[in-house]
Recover the amino acids of this structure.
């Protein structure tokens, strides 16, 4: 996890005059499962105190005044260094964008047109398109260019209320270019960036076989990533024509033995065993999940694996959507993300994701909001630090321009006025 500004420069900050503060405490208490509207945990006429970037106290402003007067509450005893009047606004936890292929060069507009003409993603990939069409320009890009590209995308997420962004490697596919993508992620600023090693995104053209390539990743790349502390998470694309579940298993075991958390691109194009492997190995999350059936749904629901659903990729791919309703009703924890990538989801639009979740996956507003906060925090292993506005967690929040029901409504438009990360303003209108 990389955060540049550092939390300790600011002292105790009081945020007051918040007409509606949704803490998501209830959704967090349920670990993001079967979230109801009341789990958004509304406090009216609220205030919040942050100390060193973390929340110290949150509640009704009237209670704060009484407690401070009586000097009876340890958490509110100390002096306030700065008071920020939020002028009657609505406040929410900041969003977490838990699945992005943030850093890549070039674009794949020609492929988009080919898909519209009826060609399949797999056929395009077999003729040198797909992931490999992004690998060549990404390998050729200088570090400064990669950082500039990534920073532009970070800024686009920030202004939508996102303070934590996952960034996968996976468009280098050589040892050195994969490490470079993670190093570039480490240089991004203003948001908290969570790097994920996705060397097993596709087979590079020079590889002898999937097995030989995974052996190289296991013997050289994973130790190098660990040594340089470039990432704490390892992801793999388990799919027909990419990496099978059987090949992935020993590679993921090796990653676990080095202390990495696991993430699996699972059952996107075919029912390829990714979700069941995620459960078997205790992965942090399983992503996509379009092709899963009853066996996978019940296994996921009974597990700690977070189901990361990526409906804008499903829209671009013109395929079906994952069975969100069944997953949620059975008690699985769901997260949402854009899957920003040049081929199957060239979009950073959180509103689009939310609208598709509601329209195409029958998720309620509360489920959608919890998926982009609590669920996403679990997916990233940051549930103790983020996802809800409760004491002890980072003071990462979004100030809306209007009411809460304006989010996940208008594609291309998130009604965000200000964004705070660790109690510091990182973006404003
Ligand atoms: Zn992805």
């Amino acid at each position: 996890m990389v955060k540049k500004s550092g939390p300790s420069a600011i002292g105790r900050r009081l945020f007051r005059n918040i007409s509606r503060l949704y803490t998501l405490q209830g959704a967090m208490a349920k670990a993001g499962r079967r979230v109801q509207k009341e789990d958004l945990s509304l406090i009216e006429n609220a205030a919040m105190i942050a100390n060193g970037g973390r929340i110290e106290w949150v509640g009704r402003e009237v209670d704060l005044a009484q407690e401070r007067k009586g000097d009876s509450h340890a958490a509110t005893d100390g002096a306030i260094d700065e008071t920020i009047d939020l002028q009657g606004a609505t406040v929410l936890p900041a969003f977490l964008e838990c699945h992005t292929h943030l850093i890549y060069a070039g674009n794949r507009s020609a492929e988009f047109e080919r898909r519209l003409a009826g060609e399949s993603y797999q056929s395009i990939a077999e003729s040198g398109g797909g992931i490999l069409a992004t690998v060549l320009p990404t390998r050729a890009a200088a570090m400064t260019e990669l950082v500039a590209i990534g920073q532009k995308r970070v800024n686009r997420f920030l202004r939508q209320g996102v303070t934590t962004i996952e960034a996968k490697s996976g468009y280098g596919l050589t040892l050195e270019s994969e490490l470079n993508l993670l190093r570039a992620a480490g240089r991004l600023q203003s948001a908290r960036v969570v790097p994920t090693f996705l060397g097993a995104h596709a087979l590079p053209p020079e590889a002898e076989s999937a097995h030989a390539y995974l052996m190289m990743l296991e013997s050289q790349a994973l130790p190098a990533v660990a040594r340089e502390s470039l990432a704490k998470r390892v992801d793999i694309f388990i799919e027909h024509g990419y990496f099978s579940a059987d090949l992935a298993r020993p590679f993921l075991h090796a990653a676990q033995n080095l202390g990495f958390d696991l993430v699996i691109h699972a059952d996107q194009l075919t029912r390829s065993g990714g979700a069941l492997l995620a459960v078997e190995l205790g992965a942090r999350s399983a992503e996509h999940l379009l092709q899963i059936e009853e066996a996978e749904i019940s296994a996921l629901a009974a597990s700690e694996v977070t189901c990361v659903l990526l409906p804008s990729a499903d829209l671009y791919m013109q395929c079906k959507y994952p069975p969100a309703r069944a997953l949620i009703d059975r008690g699985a924890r769901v997260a949402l993300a854009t899957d920003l990538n040049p081929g199957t989801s060239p979009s950073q639009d959180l509103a689009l994701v939310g609208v598709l979740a509601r329209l195409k996956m029958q998720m309620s507003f509360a489920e959608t909001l919890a998926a982009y906060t609590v669920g996403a925090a679990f997916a990233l292993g940051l549930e103790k630090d983020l996802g809800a506005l409760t004491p002890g967690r980072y003071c990462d929040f979004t100030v809306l321009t209007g009411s809460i029901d304006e989010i996940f409504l208008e594609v291309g438009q998130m009604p965000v006025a200000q964004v705070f990360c660790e109690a510091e303003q990182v973006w404003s209108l």
